[in-house]
Recover the amino acids of this structure.
């Protein structure tokens, strides 16, 4: 909606109205009786080992049965009628891409919601889910929000990469209001140094009680406070972060400058694992959300292999996420919840580019979306106003039109005055430890 011309050309009060109505529709679709029933069910698991055990057994059995009975890939892969999870093959993104619809259940009904994974390497994968899946996801998110002290009606600030203010707009305000959710929504794309104090003041003036933010956005504000040796003057219950990795140092800085605890959430669109941090700062694997196996890959790291419980349309079993965690020596947390504790999630590299006003742009995941034939991308910036997009492509699909879309998407995020060009390459360069960086910025920011 935010890239729609009508929205972009509307005056601010109309934009507030449009986004409020959109939010209300989403809220009605996602919430309601089913979500509140599941929420109260899963809240019973938190402190009760036996309730947790039986809930998890039921979910896992349901997933494995659904897969072997109704999903072509698993019907063919599984010779044994006995469904022990260890009998299932470990699968990767490439398996899903190669097998396409063979991962979809043949007994689905109702609306299908498609979404693309973001992926740190800019190689999106389309995952499909049904509305039940969307509602169930929301119940787990709602439980974590309650850990963070959220009560219905609380005033929230939202800084999560929605382009609620067009990039071409250079004058504030860079925020809008979602009336039915009691929410101020702030743009993650206008956070140039001169604007940051305005963001802080807007949240304070609104009476914000909880902030939901991308780590890169809230860290930018925490660093602004830190540089000026200020503290957030409002009274916050908590800050909830997700969708990007958050380092321990950044978490501490945010907590210090905003005067509250950060509740961090790790999840992925494949929905095969979720990890939430609690009021004691421990990261808990939410074992009633999915089945997680941690495979030792050396150097103290373990890869997350996950099986989703909440998507009967596309049940993924033993899916390699490529994300790593470090185990904890602790077997229990002072919060008393029965979920396993891990030490930390290995950070994905926090890459960024500099936009046309010198603002740091961290949110690059959306750029490859909607471009056909793109296998991998990496953005390289050697000069302030110029971006090279290195792209590994399928030459049969990636034509001139797709190239134009890729360039347009890049300008959409970084500014129309940027010079953007595409170079087709055989492969993307990797870092020393084998990771692919999303972006390499060789311009020193002021
Ligand atoms: Zn805890």
């Amino acid at each position: 909606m935010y890239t729609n011309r009508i929205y972009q050309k509307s005056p601010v009060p109309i934009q507030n109205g449009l986004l409020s109505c959109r939010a209300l529709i989403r809220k009605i679709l996602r919430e309601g009786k089913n979500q509140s029933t599941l929420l109260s069910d899963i809240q019973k698991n938190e402190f009760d080992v036996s309730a947790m055990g039986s809930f998890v057994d039921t979910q896992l059995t349901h997933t494995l049965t659904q897969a072997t009975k109704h999903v072509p890939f698993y019907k063919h892969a599984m010779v044994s009628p006995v469904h022990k999870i260890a009998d299932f093959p470990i699968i990767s993104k490439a398996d899903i891409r190669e097998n396409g619809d063979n991962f979809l259940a043949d007994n689905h009904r109702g609306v299908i919601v498609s979404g693309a994974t973001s992926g740190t390497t800019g190689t999106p994968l389309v995952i499909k889910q049904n509305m039940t899946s969307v509602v169930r996801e929301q119940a787990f998110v709602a439980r974590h929000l309650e850990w963070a002290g959220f009560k219905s009606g609380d005033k929230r600030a939202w800084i999560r990469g929605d382009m609620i203010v067009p990039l071409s707009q250079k004058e504030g305000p860079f925020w809008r209001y979602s009336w039915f959710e009691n929410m101020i929504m702030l743009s993650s794309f206008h956070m140039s140094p001169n604007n940051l104090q305005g963001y802080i003041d807007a949240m304070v003036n609104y009476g914000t009680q909880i902030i939901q933010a991308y780590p890169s956005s809230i860290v930018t504000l925490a660093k602004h406070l830190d540089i000026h040796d200020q503290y957030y003057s409002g009274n916050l219950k908590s800050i909830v972060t997700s969708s990007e990795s958050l380092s321990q140092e950044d978490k501490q800085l945010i907590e210090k400058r905003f005067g509250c605890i950060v509740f961090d959430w790790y999840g992925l669109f494949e929905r095969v694992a979720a990890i939430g941090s609690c009021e004691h700062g421990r990261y808990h694997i939410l074992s009633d959300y999915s089945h997680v196996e941690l495979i030792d890959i050396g150097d103290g790291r373990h890869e997350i292999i996950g099986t989703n419980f909440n998507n009967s349309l596309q049940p993924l079993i033993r899916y390699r996420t490529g994300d790593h965690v470090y185990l904890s020596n602790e077997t229990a947390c002072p919060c008393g919840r029965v979920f396993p504790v891990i030490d930390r999630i290995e950070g994905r590299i926090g890459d960024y580019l500099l936009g046309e006003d010198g603002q740091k742009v961290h949110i690059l995941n959306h750029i490859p979306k909607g471009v056909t034939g793109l296998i991998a991308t990496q953005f390289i910036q050697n000069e302030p106003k110029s971006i090279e997009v290195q792209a590994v492509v399928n030459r049969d699909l990636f034509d001139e039109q797709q190239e134009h879309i890729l360039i347009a998407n890049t300008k959409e995020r970084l500014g129309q005055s940027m010079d953007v060009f595409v170079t087709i390459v055989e492969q993307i360069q990797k870092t020393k430890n084998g990771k692919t960086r999303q972006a390499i910025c060789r311009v020193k920011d002021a």
Notes: The longest helix spans residues 49-70. The pocket of zinc ion is lined by residues 278, 280, 282, 284, 333, 335, 337 (CB under 6 Å). The two ends are 34 Å apart (CA to CA).
